[in-house]
Amino acid sequence: MTTRLDQDLVVALDTAVGAGLAPNRSSLVAAAVREWLASHGEEAIVDSYRRRYVRPDPPHEELIQRLATYSVAECLANES
């Protein structure tokens, strides 16, 4: 895969390689992509929602219930 990187990023990659953190630029980019995918995968997204909504939010519970009811009703109405 070919990609264009900002010159500052290329310098940072070269610095990391020079410091012995990785054998080459490609391995650093591949590691970054793997890390990004792991943190943005379906399970990571579900976990982030669980962390965010771990406590009930009483002021918004009614609104959420109304929106959910509306969505279900709308889906059923359009099911023809």
What's the topology here?
Blueprint: H1 7-18, H2 25-40, H3 42-52, H4 58-77
Distance between the termini: 45 Å
Order of helices and strands, N to C? Answer: HHHH
Would you tell me the structural class of the helices and strands?
mainly alpha
* Total count of strands: 0
Instruction: Estimate the helix proportion, in percent.
Output: over 70%
Question: How would you portray this structure in words?
Answer:
- It is a single chain.
- The chain has 80 residues and is mostly helical.
- It has four helices and no strands.
- The protein has helices at residues 7-18, 25-40, 42-52, 58-77.
- The longest helix has 20 residues, at 58-77.
- The N and C termini lie far apart (45 Å).
- The mean pLDDT is 81.
Question: Main attributes?
Answer:
80 residues; mainly alpha; elongated
Describe what is shown at a glance:
This protein has 80 residues and is mainly α. The protein is built from 4 helices and no strands.
